[in-house]
Queue: 3 jobs
Job 1
Amino acid sequence: MKSRPNKGQPASPLRRALRNIAIGVGVFLLYAYAVQVTQINLRTPLEPTRQERVIDMLRRLGRPDLLAYDTEVQALNLSLITPCPEPLRGGQISGDGRTITLAPNCVETTQDRLVMSGEGYPPNARGIIRWHPPGTEAVARQVASFRADEDGRFVVNFTMPDVRPSEEAQRIEVEEIIGQTLTGLSNASEVTLSRIVETILMALMASTLGTIIAMPLSFIAARNLMSRSGATLAGMMSALAVLPLGGFLGRQLGIALTWAGAQIGNQPWVGLLIFVLLLGISVVVTRQYIAAQAEASSIDLETRFAWQPYLVTVAALLAVAIFGQIGLVGGEWLREALGIFGFLGGFLVTLADIVRLLLPTILMLVGAVIAVSLGSRYGEEINFRIEGTAARLVTGLITAVGSGLTIYGFGLFLNWLYQFENVHNWTTYPAIGFGLLLGLLATTVEPRREMPIGLGIYYLVRGILNTLRSIEPLIMGIVFVVWVGLGPFAGMLALMLHSIADLGKLFSEQVENIAEGPLEAVTATGANRVQTIVFAVVPQIVPPFIAFAFYRWDINVRMSTIIGFIGGGGIGLVLQQNINLLLYRQASVMIIAIAVVVTVLDYVSAKLRNRLI
Amino acid sequence: MQTEANTTNTNSTPTPFVKSLRTFLLVILAVVIYAYAVEGTRINLQTPMEPRRQDNLINVLRLLAQPDLFIYSAQGQIAGLSEASLITLERIVETVFMALMASTIGTMIAIPISFVAARNLMEPVRMPLAGITTALIALPIGGFVLGTAVSFLVQLGEQIAALNWLALLLALASFAGSWAVVKLGPELVTTESPTPAQTAIATVRVIAAVTLGFLGLAVLSHLGLVAGLWLEERLGLFGFIGNFIFVLSDFFRLVSPILAMVLGAMVGISMGSRVGQEIVLGLEMVPGRLFTGLVSVVGTAVCIYGIGTGLNWLYQFNDPAWWTTYPALAGGLIVGLIGFSVDPRRPFPVGLAVYNIFRTILNLTRSIESLIMAIVFVIWVGVGPFAGVLALTLHTTAALGKLFSEQVESIATGPVEGVIATGANRLQMIAYAVVPQVVPPFIAFAFYRWDINVRMSTIIGFVGGGGIGFVLSQNINLLRYQQASVMMIAIALVVASLDYLSSKVRERII
């Protein structure tokens, strides 16, 4: 047999057989190890005690506690002694011709088996056995249930869910159910209803906010859009150099606007008047501008509308800032005035809160983006105005300043996180050292050479998205619970963050998949980058974006049913509590609700997706 | 504005007024929904800004940023991996293997289910009422016969296995016997149409061969239990191989009677439906009606009685007869009357009914997160990775069953028609026309599911299902954030790299 086949020819039978054997052995070992590690053991599930437990659970899950009954009961009381006296004894009580025996009538651990037998009951009588823990506050807990046979006898084996030693005897109540009338939904059903609504709303908010934030991110994380943008070193570095300045100015503007808005909005009616006025100005001027744009040439537009865009921007920003204050006042007022629609007022308050708290931050970001855009443009201008050694020197200088500032800022962040002993070792010194070094290196580069800065950003954003995406929302939820406390808000934030990362990646892949034709056509008309995105990219990606947003909404609904396990609100929290307290009939209601809601929403979203695309 | 345009035809596009009214209403609706959602999710931006809470968060972030990766010697040198790192390594392996087992087992179970849950395969399955009800009668018989036979063989195997070395010889002998029955004598599968006698002989030979082969396997599985334990002690580091043999043998011993029961039920359905159909097609109108009515009574009664028995097991009714015997009799009579009154040869869309039942079960199971299933399995098999594997397997089966069946539904019909045109039966059609088309998407979905399972297995420990989530939640509850950080980093690394790997493999395979 040929054991050495030529390249490009199929491997000889011997080799192939060898390879197959090796793969077979590898797979065998892999699964052998997997079985060991995952502790798969078929005997455990078949152990009689475990089977009994699971059958008991299934039977109780099979009877969801959906409806509330008014039960008429007749009770007999026995006493339970904890801890056990010496010697062990039993208890007995009779009444109405019924006799109950409890043996032993004491427990020390939750493993101790108690046997209760009764006789003299009507045939097939049903009832429950409750335990009243010591202390006046304690709520009675159901420990077992019984059903008499044809002769009115029953024997029940049970253990105590909890053992609380006490001086005096504890009460064991045996309640025989005499009659039942339906009174409405059970407590568990009502809790389930309110929690399942909370669950759906969490998913809705997380999906909406996540989609909104993921959209701009996806353009930055799309390779085809980013690989086009390059900049000369000088442009890049001057952008970095003015970035903090822009951010600072934007933030100051935001703070000033918030302050002004608060002052004006303090007198609600005056504030409302000014708010409406400013909005009116913005709308009117914008309309004029659009109308003029339709007929006039672009040069004409620039001369006729030199100051209007700025006016609109300032007026709109001030209006938003005023809203931050009057929304707060008005929302509180509406919350009380509107009765059951008070949540509309609450919504207004939250919106106003968002404006007030986030306006400086958003303006900081906007300022930074504007600074980057201006900085890179003027940096490039410099490069194209001067040549030779002068250009190299200028590039070197700008690089030194830009990289120095960036490293300083990064060092400040690290120091905030790690709180180093010597701050300068992480901020000033590396900033100066690397700034100078990079500045020197920059002088060796051809000044007009384009650097693939877009690709750098692409890799950075994609890396962050992929890392975030790999951490489940449940783990993120833990951190958010530490921050904002237990409740649906923490769950919503966790789901939102994961949605942003996931949708950011899915959306950007869609942007990467767009057809090149429209892009080239729009670029050929002399459109700039933003116009290209608006007229060539956006129309192509709207349908897949909607489809993915719905897909994510599905995932979020599923996830929000379990995010309560770590305290993130929704139905998961109560479900887990019920199961831990062995209240399977209540848990069953919740599991059914989850199954129904998830299935229905799944179906609805599939239908909607089909219609929209 | 243009109010006169209000009365345009309903077929044309709506007027501007109607459109703006609709938009307005939609906006109002959206505002109300989101306003309620903000209230319902208790979004409150003041909470995260409280200084105390911010301090809390910053403290946690600072601790998370300093993962407890190494232990240091007195000189500040790295002296080795910290305890948290070692635990993380061990648990992350457990996590990945949990996902592997669940994906593998889930895929294997989902494949046959997906064919039953595919509309295009099931829709043409139609049958006269007599066929359906005869199948219902034969179902429990088949399950009982085959199940009992296999349990008997397994027990016989246990008896033989007590002979130790002799048992090994006997097992080999029964394999050889099985081989001999198949190979010696005339070919089992011939192209010529056989006489009834030949068919009978061939059937007996097949049964004999299968019985002998299975007996050999049964003996081997009992020997495997002993050998597995022996190997586990001897092999040291590779003791897991012994454990694997033990678990495999155990699996065979415990599960084969159940599988045989299912298989027997399926054979019962197949043979029963064929027999019922043949009889009814061979009969005249009136005897056909009589026959259909008779088997309908019996079949329906058996079916309802079986369901009632299952319900009674679950609910333990006061008077089981009200749930088993009486409804069985009543239902049997009603369906019997229907069977008598319809045209005995009229085909009923039984395939569609089976499809709908399977799809509904899959959808409902799929909608319950594996974490919730894990809680139930933890109660059954105890805290640990096994519970996690079971929960993930169940969810994987349901999810893949649906995805796979959708793939089966979207296959090209050309090859199917081509194969049917050659006179192939249903099984051959699936093997030669459907399977080649669905293998690539099946593999892609299996890998996709493996991704999801890796993610899920990192958190299934939160409810006691094993893997890294268990220790992670413990560390967080104890406020040991530096240790938790190691685990979060490990999760991010493993999930991201497996994601990358699986997408590469997927690209190569398809």
Note: The first strand of chain B starts at residue 70 and ends at 72.
Job 2
Amino acid sequence: MASIGRFIRLAIGVCALLLFVAAAPVPSAAQQVDPAASAVKEQQLLQELNRIQGRVSIPDQRSGVLEQPQGREWREFHNVTLRWVGGIAILGMLALLVIFYLRRGMVRLQSGRSGRTIVRFTAFERFVHWMTATCFIVLAITGLNITFGRPLLLPLIGPEAFSEWSQWAKYAHNYLSFPFTIGVVLIFLMWIAGNIPNKVDIGWLKRGGGIVGHDHPPAYRFNAGQKAIYWIVVIGGGLVAATGYQLMFPFYLSGIEGMQLAQIVHSIVAVLFVAVMLAHIYIGTIGMEGAFEAMGTGTVDVNWAKEHHSLWLEEQSARTGANDAGRKAAVTAAE
Amino acid sequence: MARMKFLCDADRCIECNACVTACKNEHEVPWGINRRRVVTINDGKPGERSISMACMHCTDAPCAAVCPVNCFYTTADGVVLHSKDLCIGCGYCFYACPFGAPQYPKVGNFGSRGKMDKCTFCAGGPEADGSKEEYEKYGANRLAEGKLPLCAEMCSTKSLLAGDGEVIAQIYKERVMKRGYGSGAWGWKTAYRETIES
């Protein structure tokens, strides 16, 4: 029995030796094989997809994106393009308004004040307007601070003060976005009826409205210029709100490219929005006599309504009775 | 002065994640934040490679360029650091970073961003070297103690190299020459605008 055991052991030993001899050439063959031949190549991946993504074993799966050099384009946009676009839009609009004011001055009421007034905006409408407007001004200043603060304000007040201010500006920008968005939605709903473009607008635009032209083309409650402002507020406000929330809640809606794109849309729409609103503020204050009180006290002089919104005044008069309109309004007027 | 760089030799990385763990432990990085991570590309397929990635301390760093409050600075060693006192947590550096390095603790409402945290090349921050404040905000300052980043120092396969860019490039070149292959210095082109020719 022992000899059989020895024989088996010998046989296994011989087999093992044969296997070893047979296997021996394999490592030398492997040396000629390039283990990196099929390896992923960085430049190839970048050229194909412009980003490199893989698997990570940490809980944060978003960190699986290894490399995405397109941040460079975004940097170029943020540091160069946006500053030019924003600077030209805002300073250009300011310059335009100054030149316009110097040449045209305040557009006066041609027939003077009648002393009788008519309600133009209810208390609720004015509340919504001013809530949105206040938020907009804070959002605009704090937003511009992010883009222009570093080159303009930081050297003046120093890094510590600038960071402190910017920190609060960021909070204000984030939190006031909520009442602003509510305001935009309310504006959309409460004034949509008067802001559908119609035939009257074409005539109004052809005659340059009341501010560029020198006469008073007829208009309903909102003229073509105001309708334009309305749609800019609704669409522009909607865009800045949607893209802003995308940036406020990172990764809820998109990855990093989506956020870069959102920031581009957000900032470009925002600087154009600011430029348009400067013009809106101009016409509503020093640009036109009798315009501010519409949003101030809520009532306007009947002569103002006759000049700027003749068709609206007719509508209102028809509704309340021709003679009544003026008298009823006069009760609230001229204190 | 040396120009400090990271280099991950993907042909050596075995995805053990020890660099990730060492970093978290050394700097007591808060929960949910990873200054370093290991990404495996083509996982389970032929040619799979793992790369350990953190802030690459770029030349002409995009984060520093876009920061609205200018809180970044580059040290004499070429390490890109930032001041958490100045950071406002806006997220812009994260949009600009090619490597996804900036991390934000969720401190505010709605998971809004707190002050940014990222790899410091174990070089702390603007506070006094080795001070308690520095440690609390940025973690250990090993560079000030004459040590190199811990992730690379304890890498078991010596895949991750950290140190003088020229020295680690030389080490990598020698490796590639000796073994006859190399899948390149990942991220170098993007971060430093140069590659290691081998």
Note: The first strand of chain B starts at residue 4 and ends at 8.
Job 3
Amino acid sequence: MLAQLPPPQTYVYSDDRLRQKSPFVHIDGLLLQKQSDDIKNRVKLNEVFLEIMEDYPADNSLKEKIVAELVSFLIITQSTNISFEKTPEDGFLVKSKFNNTDYFAAIYFDEEIQSGYECFLNMYQGKKYIGAFEGDLENVFLRLIKS
Amino acid sequence: MDRLKKRDNYITIDFLIIGKGDGAYFLVRGTDSKNLKDEHGRLKSEFVAKQTSHMRDYSTNLLGKTIPSDLIDVIKCEWYFFLKLDDFNQVQIRHDIESKVIHTPLEDNFWHCSIRWYLEGKDSESDELSKSQKRGVWEFARSYIITMAIFEEPFFEEIPESYYSHTE
């Protein structure tokens, strides 16, 4: 099954530093296993990724990193029906389905801190509020992945 | 529209006396587009508020004496969504954030209400909160409204007359 997947270089980041820091690269092996039956998801994520990249210029490495983290997270969770919406103040609303349940995450970024932007995320399952995650970007997404 | 104006015997509505489950009470908010829903059936964020800071005093109308068609005349909106009063009136919506509904009558619309947000008991407009804290509350409020918005006109009741009038 793994042989059917597109090669990892499908996802190209211009900054090598980002490659090292993003969990995207680290999870590649796991990702391949998890995604082995669902190439469509990855195609969709690629589309979404490109769409967002149009909104955020490539020279903005922090924003680029944010996008990389978001895409990584969605791949890891094997989410489907993913849609992104930008709020008027550069937040993201990410809506997706996982195990036939609707999930909704409202993400926004506050002042720049040493380790990147401070990230805040409020998450809902259907109409039920699940919880808030906040901290620097990597922290938030690592906690999300573990939860 | 005279029907919506304050009358001599009207008093300010104290939403604190309206308990959860007391009735099928709803708030209604007008919008400028009929395409309110995204592909997931949730309210699009742009129809919650244009700017996050607009969340501080979130303008709505109490459904009852105000009915959706009145909004066309009073606030010039042809489309609307609904919020259940029970989801917003004195509700601890997050461990540190509470919402309250406040009666804020206007000259031509006695039924105008606002939803206010409190972080650990402090009004989100308060000078005691930092800019970041305020934004945090308002961003959360936006996500909560996106989640709780209702698109079909619900079965609704009017609040009892004694809640807004001296004389029954």
Note: The interface with chain A takes residues 38-42, 44-46, 50-52, 93-94, 132, 135-136, 139-140, 142-144, 146-148 of chain B (CB under 8 Å).
